[in-house]
User: Fold this.
Amino acid sequence: MRLMAAIATLPVALGLANSHAGPRIERNVPYRQVGGATLTLDAYLPAPAISRRAAIIFVHGGGWRAGDKSAFAPGEPVFAPTALRFARLGFAVFSIDYRLAPAAPFSAAASDVSFAVRWVRGHAANFDIVPRRIGIFGVSAGGNLAALVATEGRGSLDRGARVRAAVSWSGPMNLALFDTELGGPARHPFVESYLACRPTRCPSRYTSASPVNHVDRSDPPMLIANSRHEIVPLGQAEEMARRLTNAHVPHELVVVSGSRHAADYEAEVWGATVRFLLHYLQ
Assistant:
């Protein structure tokens, strides 16, 4: 009952007005030209009567080498908590494309996600967004990128590519240990493809691509979700939680039973995710 009450009052808590009109969608909005490519995003915007919005950047998964912004689209069968669902709660949502490996290995995707945060903040007036109320939410490889962008910067959360809150579902947090924890790199060659080398050949690249190595006490609050026996070892989420604890960064670790990955456990973590964003983006 408390969760339902919190969700029902979310637009009010975010400083938004109630409206019976539905969200509108602006598709394929260009946000960056880089490497000969034009990167786009889809914007899911609350009804015009809902003003002074908080914003969420959505980062899709796909092993850094597949997927696109449509993973969060209405009617998408793979991912249940769609961008439209968040927009109906009063958030302005921006689901982004980013460059993919192996054509664009690390740190291309991280650079694109960081640029998207800056772009949304720079266009806050166009979308009636409060620039200091920007969060980021990623799943799987997108969870790694969301956590990486959230922890890379230092200082104020109100400028540049900094965010006020971050959510990661099944995001790899320590790429140097990722394959070791699963029993060997042959099981997950996409990590090596993404970083364009083996850990023994370029350890500094694995360090740079791992959010656990960038945590400091100025980082935003983070919700981390993971199931106990999924493709991303639970130890990844637990290590990230320890780093955040040591840095005195507010965080929540949600552990789901079984072997489900990211969107597959949406029903179990949706409520915690909404409560978390409600609390830190208001």
Observations:
- The chain has one domain: 2-280.
